[in-house]
Each structure stands twice: as C-alpha cells, then as structure tokens.
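Support reply, case 0932

Customer input (verbatim):
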Amino acid sequence: MRVSIVHPGAGELKYEIRGIVEFAKKLEKTGLPIVWENIGDPVAKGEEVPLWVREMVSKETLDSSESYGYSATKGVDETREYLSAIRTKEVGQELKPENIIFFNGLGDAITKTYTWLNPIARVLGPSPAYPTHSSVEGAHGRSRHLTYDLDSDNGWLPDMEDIRNKVTYNPQIAALLIINPDNPTGAVYPKEILEEFVSIALEFDLFLIADEIYANLAFEKEAFCSLAELSNGIPTIVMRGLSKEVPWPGSRCGWLEFYNIDADPDFRAYVKSIEEAKMTEVCSTTLPQTVLPKILGDSRYPDHLERRRKLYAERAETVQKILGNCAALRVVKPKGAFYQTVAFSEDFVKQPFVLPAANPEAQHLLDTELAAIEPGNFDKRFCYMLLAATGICTVPLTSGFNSHIPGFRITLLENNPQIFEKTLNSIVSVVTR
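Our regenerated output:
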C-alpha cells in the first residue's frame, strides 16, 4: 500500500482463549471428541439460565416494543438510576446516573477505556493477565502490556513491592488495573491489598481501574470488597456486567462506573472522551438494560447467586483433590469466579515432554501446529499436545494470559460430575506418564 495501513500495535492483539478453537475444530473432524475447557461461557457448558429470568425477558419482548428500539446513548435512563441507587448504597459514596455508561459487553467497554487513553499513558495490570485487557492495552501503547506479578506462592495475590517498583521506574504508567475476583486465577483480593493499591495511586497521582465482572461470584460473599468502597477520592473506573452472573453472555451488556471524576481535570476530560466516543455508536443493546433492574431486584436472585457460588466452590475442591497432589502441577484453590489456574512445577518444565495424538490424522495436524510454536514455549506446546491426545481444550498461561509462569487454565463450568472428574484424571495421567 502507498501508506502503511497496519496499526502499530496490531501485533499485540492476541486472544488465545479462542485462538486454540480453530485447531480443536480440525481435530474434531478426525473423530476426536472435544472437551471445551477454554472459554468461560456457562451456557455453552450446559448451565441453565433460570426459567424465571427467561420468562422475564420473554415477557418484556412481548409486552412492549420499546426494547426493540434505541436506548439513550449512555444507557436506559431508568436502569442507570436503579444502578446509581444500589451502588451508592453498596460502596458508601455517591454514584450519579450520568456517571454510568453502558456498552455492548464489557469487552467493548474495555476497548474504549484503553483506546481513548493518551498513547503515551500506560496501564499496569496483573500477570497472569486477562487477554482482552492485556492485548488491547498493549495495542494502545504499541508495545507489550506492562504487568505486575501475581504470586502463586501467596494465593495468586499481587506482589505489591513489584507494583511499587514498576510504578516508580516507569513514569509513563498512569493507572493500575485490578481484576477482582481475578481471571484466570480466581483470587479474591482482601481489603488490605486494595487499600495498598489506593495508597500507591494516591502517592504517584494515578487513577484506578477495577474489573469486577465476577463481583457476585466470590465464593464467600463477605470476602469481596469493591474498589469503589476504598477509592478515597482517587479517580476510579469500575467495570461490571451481566454476562457471568445471570449468566447471559449473549446479552452483550456491560457498563462502566466513574467515581471521583472531578478530582482531576485530566481524568474528567478523559471520561468525557469516552462519553463522546459512545455517542458515535448511538446506544448499546436495549433489551438486557431494560430487564436488568427486574432481574437483579427479584427476590429469587440472591438465592440464584448463592447456589452458583456453592457449586463452583465444590468443583474447586474436586480440582484440589484430584490435581492437588500431583508433583508436576501447582494448584492454588480459587476463591471466586469459575476458573482454575494450574501452574507447572519447575522440574516438570525442565523435562522433555512428548505426547502422541489420538489418531494419525490428528498427529499430522499436531505436527503442523507444533512446527509453528517456539520450542521454548512449553505450556503452549503442552496444551496443543493435550488437545490432540485427549480432546481436552485448555488455554496456556504464557501465550494466553501474558504470564511468566507456565501452566494452563481450565474452567469450573462442567455440569456433569463424571465428565469433570474424567477430565481432571486424564490430565493427571498425562503429566505422570
């Protein structure tokens, strides 16, 4: 082309969670059944959306045509007023309706958050990292996403000394990202850790971003604390949505909450740019916004959440029982969300690992894939070999979650206990063969 048309940060846009699917689909055609452990879609794994929720949505579509039309650009007014009231009560500081903006899923909200940040300003996020954050932030900054370490020897909690050092010696860092409960590790950050984030932000004049999409899926409800409760006047963005907790991923309904907007003129102008960008899209998906207050306000909803929290906690115990005593693996029990991060022991990574595929055609496909994967990328090679041999589709930590610790992520979403335990036992048999 006469002018380069490739964005300078395009090379950072990677999403291994779905990237491995193409290979899995090819293997499926060889007759190998696939166990989809790569993506956090409860509905795809067979979880039933409560009938009362489906009836509520159905009634809305039948009783009124309003949900078929445009909403206000920032979102349905009544819904933002509802969220304003309940969130103000929850966090102990005022959240005005005009400081809530709806997007077409939280992924859209995340993209807008980084896209409209000055390219020289960077956001420091966790590693292992959720790829939507890490890839879009990296593309925004035209280089690899800057990360702080989550300590697998300390329940995957943030290494606060590492954060302080990186903020001190990287003056381009403008914000800190917290994912709580965390994806992929399932860690839930105690109040004291969140207070340290606030303290660092206050000291270095940073703003804060908290992705709290799994807020209502912390296994112990009382253990979760929203960052907005502690922000102490710091400009803060909190990210929330419906996709994981209802669950309704197909709703594409996520929103941003802005706190302490007037604490800094630059932050106020930045928020305004996000609002203006939203104006160009007219509005976000209307139907889920319309029914959101009815779903969240229903007397059955708290019991629905508690049932799901208990279910995932029980599955985490099952993982601990089956994988926890395997010398090749390092397993930290999650405290929220519905994921399990499994790291490899140092000794296992140092050993040569070869796993034959389930059939000759699958072996040919595997050989082709492995030829394109660097020899030193141990966990990606492991995940592709595991997939070709057993049909278990996992996500490698290093390439999938921008991690310096090799391993893989599975979910806690399998509804059939026999299949779930068989999957876990298959993993054990592979790493101990």
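We compared this against your earlier run and they match. Two observations from our side: The CA atoms of residues 370 and 381 lie 6 Å apart. The first strand starts at residue 35 and ends at 36. Please reopen the case if you see a mismatch on your end.
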